[in-house]
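Feature request disguised as a bug report, sorry. It would help if multi-protein outputs had a clear separator. Right now it looks like this:
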Amino acid sequence: MIEFSQVPRSWGFFDVSHKEWLHACASTWGGRIAQLHYQFLTNQEIEIANSKHLGHNYPTDVITFPYAEGKRVVAECLIGYERVEEQARARGLPLEQEAARVMAHGLLHCLGFNDQTAAQKQEMRAAEDYCLVLHAKNL
C-alpha cells in the first residue's frame, strides 16, 4: 500500500499511476512495497524533522525512515515540498519531474541505496535516472 498525505493543492499531478510507477521502481531492484507513506511538509516542518532526527538545521527535500530490512519496503518518507519546488526552479525542471526524482530517492534508500560517498551518490543518481525513465513511460 502506498499513501500520500498533506499533498500540496498545487501538486494535482498525483494519481494511481504514481503508485504503479513506485511499485515498478521497487521491482526493478527486486523489492516489494508492503507499506510506503509519503508525507509532504513545508520548509519549516521538514527543517524541524531534519534537526530532530538527523541533527541538520536546514530544510531538505526528503528524509526516509525505513522500518523493514531487505527488499520488503515498509517506510515513511517526509518530503519537503517547498524545497522540491525550489530545486525544480533552480534546475529548470518541471515540478513533477523533480518531485518524482525525490520520491524515487526516498524509495531507493529503502532498497539499500546510499549516498554518503561519491561512488554511492553516482550509483544513486543512476538509479534515480532509471526511475525517471520508468516514470516517463508510466505516465
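(second protein starts here, but nothing in the output says so)
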Amino acid sequence: MSLALVTGGAGAIGGNVSRELIKRGFRVVVLDNLSSGFKGNIPKCRFINGDICDNKVLKKAFGYSPDVVFHLAANFANQNSVDHPEKDLRTNGLGTLRLLRFSRKNNCRFVYASSSCVYGNRPGSLREEHVSASLDTPYAFSKLLGEQYVNFFHANFGMWTSIVRYFNSYGPGEYPGRYRNVIPNFISIALKGKALPITGTGDETRDFTYVQDVVEGTLLSAEKESANGKTFNLGSGKETKIKVLAAKINEITGNNAGVEFVKRREWDHISRRLAYIGKSKKILGYNPKVGLDKGLKSTVEWFKGLR
C-alpha cells in the first residue's frame, strides 16, 4: 500500500483529495497548520498540525516515508496576499522550496497545486503555455514562483513532478469568509436572505469547477507516467458570468433579495477566465462530469447541513 502526504489537507480540495486517496487504498498523512483549513475536512488519517516552512515538522512528516506528495498548502488567496505579502511569500515560496528538497531526498513523486491566477488578465481560452509576465497580486507571483521551483527540480535533478492549475474550484468543504471564494460567500449570504454583492458589472466570467472533478484530475496527474514534468489546467472548460452565478444561487436557495453592485477590488482586473482542458483530457484522461447546476445544488445542501 502506498503512502501519500497531503499538505493543506484541511482545505476543501485537500480534504477531498485525502478522502479519495483513502478510498483507493492509500495510507494518508495530512500536514496543515489550520490557518485557513478546518479539522472537519480531514478524514480519518494521520494528521500533523504544523507549518510547511518548519524543517522539524517536515522531518516528522517525511519520517512516514511518503511515496507521493500532493502539495496543496498555500497562503490563500488574492486579497489575503495583498494584505499579508510577506506571509504569502514565505508560505508559497519558501514552503514549496523546502517541500521539494525533502521530496527529492526521499524520492517522492511531487504534485504541485498551482492556480489559474498565473495567467493574469489574458483573454480567451487559456492554454498552459499562456502564463503572463504581468500579474495582479502577490498570490499570483508566489504561485508562479512555486511552479518555477518545481520545474527547476524536475529539469536539474530528474525529480518526478507534475503541476495542476486550479480554476475556481467549489463544493462541499469550502467555508465562507473574508478571504474565501465567491460561491461559498454567495451561498452563505443567500441563505441569510440578503442581496448578493457583485464587484464590477457582473459580466465578468470565471470557470467554476466542482471539487470532485478537481480531485479526479489531481490524482490522475500523479498516476499517469506521461504527466511527469508537465503542467495541466483543471477547469470545467466553461465560463459563467458572475451575475448568472448569482441568479442561480438565489434561485436554488429561494433568496428573493437579488443582488447589489459594489465597488470592484483595486487589484482585480480579471474580466474573463476560461480553461482550455484539451491537454488534460488527452494526456490525463481528465473529464469533468459535474455541471454547475448540479454542483451548486450539492454545495447548497452541504451548507444547509452545517446549520
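Even a blank line would do. Unrelated, but nice: The longest strand covers residues 109-115.
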